[in-house]
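User: I've been trying to design a sequence by hand for this structure and keep getting stuck. Would you show me what you'd pick, starting by listing the structure so we're on the same page?

Assistant: Good idea, let's start from the same input. This is the structure you sent:
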C-alpha cells in the first residue's frame, strides 16, 4: 500500500527495500535529520523546509510514512482503514487546528462510542442515558444526574492517586465494576490501582445527554485520510524521505546539522544497558464480511466485560468520506505485552526510569527528542503536533540567539 500511495507523492519520497541509504544521500550534508516519519517528525521536517529553507532528511524504519496515523484502502473491502487503530482528531488548541488546515480538507465528525454492558448498548462516556438504561432510572436533567452521581461516588480525603481511585471518585463502584475495572485490566494487564490517575481520567463523565467521546471544540477527520496529509507535508523539494531505514543502521555514516529523534528514548540509549521502559501493544484481528452492509451499530463498540478477551471492535465503514462498498471489514482489538510500542505504561517504575533516560537526552549534543515515544508520554495527535511546533520554535530561537552572540 505504501508503494501505491508513494507513486502519487513527492518525487523526493523513496520506498527502499534494503536497509541503508544510497551513497549519494550519505555523501550529502543534511541541515536536519529526522528519525521517524510520524506526525512529530513530519511537523519538524515541514517547518524547517518551508520556514527556514533547510534541507531535511527523514529516515523511517517502517515500510511506510505516517507513523501510527498511517491509513490505507483495504483492497478487499474498499474501506479506508487505519493500520494501527482508530484515529480521531480532536483539539482545543487554535494553533494546531489552524496548522492542520494547510494539509487537508476536514470533515466535522464527533466521535461517539457505544459500550456493550449487561448485554445492552449504552453510551460511553457515562451520561444520563447510560445510567437510565443500566439502572432503570428516569433521570431527565443535570441536577438529578449530579445528585445520583454524588450518592455513588467514593469520597477520598486526598486527590485520587491511581486509575481506580479516579474512576471510583467519579462514578462509584457499580459503574466502575461494569465499565472501568474489567476494561482497564484487559487493556493494561494490571490492576487499575497500579496505574497512574491519568489513565482513567482520559475519558469524561457527563451529567447530561451529551454522547460525544471528546469535549474539544474542534473535532474532525481528514477528508482523504491521514496518509494523504503526510504526502502533502513531505511534498517539498527540501525534504527527502527514506522508508525501511533504521536510523541506528546508518547513524554513523550520516552528516546532520541537528537530529530530531522520534523513536523510543530507551532504544536510543540501548548501549547504556539500562532496564527497558515498558509499553503496552495491541493486536488487530481483521474480519471481512462479504455483501454485508454493517456489522455493528457504531464505528467503535467497547466490550468492557470480563468474559470477552478483547476490548473493542472497530468498523471503519461508519466513518464519513468512505468510498461506496457492498462489504464491510471489522477489527477486533486485543491488548498485548509484545508488539509495536503503543502505550507507555504509567506506573512509578517507568516514570522514574524515564527520568533517568531524560537526563541523558538533555545532555545529548545536537539531538532533540520529540514525540510520543521519545517523551514516553501518551500524546494525542494534537499534543504531538503542538509539542513539535513548540520544540521547533524553541530550537530555532536558540539557534538565532547563538548566531547573534
Ligand atoms: P509515531 O506515530 O509512533 O511515529 C514515530 C515513528 O518513528 C514511527 O513511524 C517509527 O517507525 C519511527 N521510528 C522509531 N524508531 C526508529 C528508528 N530507529 N529508525 C527510523 N524510524 C524509527 N491520537 C489522537 O489524537 N486520536 C486518536 O484517536 C488516537 N488513537 C490512537 C490509537 C492508537 C492505537 C495509538 C497507538 C495511538 C493513537 N493516537 C491517537 C495517538 C497518535 O497515534 C500519536 O499522537 C501520534 O502517532 C504521535 O506521532 P509520533 O510521530 O510522535 O509517533
Ligand atoms: N476505559 C475503560 N472503559 C472503557 C473505555 C475506557 O475502562 O469503556 C479506560 C481504560 O483504562 C482506558 C482509558 O479509560 O485505557 C482511556 O480510554 P481511551 O478510549 O482514551 O483509550 P485509547 O483509545 O487511547 O486506547
Amino acid at each position: 500500500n505504501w508503494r501505491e500511495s508513494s507513486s502519487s507523492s513527492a518525487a523526493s519520497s523513496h520506498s527502499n527495500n534494503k536497509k541503508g541509504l544510497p551513497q549519494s544521500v550519505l555523501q550529502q550534508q543534511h541541515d536536519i535529520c529526522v528519525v521517524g516519519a510520524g506526525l512529530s517528525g513530519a511537523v519538524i521536517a515541514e517547518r524547517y523546509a518551508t520556514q527556514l529553507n533547510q534541507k531535511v532528511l527523514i529516515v523511517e524504519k517502517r515500510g511506510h510514512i505516517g507513523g501510527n496515523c498511517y491509513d490505507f484502502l483495504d483492497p478487499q473491502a474498499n474501506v479506508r482503514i487505519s493500520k494501527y487503530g482508530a484515529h480521531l482528531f480532536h483539539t482545543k488548541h487554535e494553533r494546531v487546528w489552524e496548522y492542520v488546515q494547510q494539509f487537508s480538507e476536514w470533515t466535522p465528525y464527533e466521535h461517539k462510542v457505544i459500550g456493550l454492558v449487561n448485554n445492552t448498548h449504552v453510551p460511553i462516556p457515562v451520561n444520563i442515558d447510560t445510567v437510565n438504561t443500566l439502572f432503570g432510572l428516569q433521570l431527565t436533567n443535570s441536577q438529578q444526574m449530579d445528585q445520583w452521581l454524588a450518592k455513588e461516588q467514593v469520597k477520598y480525603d486526598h486527590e485520587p492517586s491511581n486509575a481506580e481511585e479516579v474512576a471510583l471518585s467519579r462514578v462509584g463502584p457499580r459503574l466502575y465494576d461494569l465499565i472501568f475495572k474489567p476494561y482497564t485490566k484487559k487493556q493494561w494487564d494490571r490492576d487499575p490501582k497500579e496505574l497512574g490517575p491519568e489513565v482513567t481520567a482520559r475519558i469524561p463523565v457527563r451529567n447530561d445527554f451529551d454522547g460525544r467521546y471528546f469535549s474539544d471544540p474542534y473535532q474532525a477527520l481528514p477528508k482523504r485520510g491521514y496518509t494523504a496529509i503526510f504526502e502533502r507535508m513531505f511534498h517539498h523539494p527540501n525534504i527527502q524521505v527514506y522508508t525501511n531505514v533504521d536510523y541506528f543502521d546508518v547513524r554513523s555514516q550520516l552528516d546532520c546539522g541537528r537530529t530530531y529523534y522520534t523513536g523510543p528514548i530507551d532504544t536510543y540509549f540501548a548501549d547504556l544497558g539500562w532496564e527497558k521502559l515498558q509499553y503496552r501493544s495491541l493486536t488487530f484481528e481483521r474480519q471481512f464480511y462479504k455483501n454485508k452492509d454493517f456489522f455493528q451499530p457504531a464505528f467503535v463498540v467497547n466490550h468492557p466485560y470480563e468474559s470477552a478477551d478483547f476490548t473493542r471492535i472497530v468498523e471503519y465503514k461508519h466513518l464519513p468520506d468512505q468510498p461506496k462498498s457492498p462489504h464491510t471489514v471489522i477489527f477486533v482489538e486485543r491488548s498485548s505485552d509484545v508488539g509495536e510500542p503503543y502505550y507507555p505504561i504509567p506506573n512509578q517504575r517507568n516514570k522514574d526510569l524515564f527520568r533517568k533516560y531524560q537526563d541523558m537526552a538533555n545532555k545529548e549534543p545536537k539531538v532533540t527528542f520529540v514525540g510520543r515515544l521519545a517523551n514516553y508520554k501518551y500524546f494525542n495527535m494534537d499534543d504531538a503536533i503542538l509539542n513539535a511546533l513548540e520544540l521547533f520554535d524553541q530550537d530555532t530561537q536558540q539557534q538565532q540567539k547563538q548566531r547573534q552572540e
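That's my pick for every position. To get oriented when you compare it with your attempt: Residues 115, 124, 179-180, 183-184, 187, 199-200, 202-203, 302, 304 surround uridine-5'-diphosphate (ligand 2) (CB under 6 Å). The chain has two domains: 2-107+219-276+344-404, 113-201.
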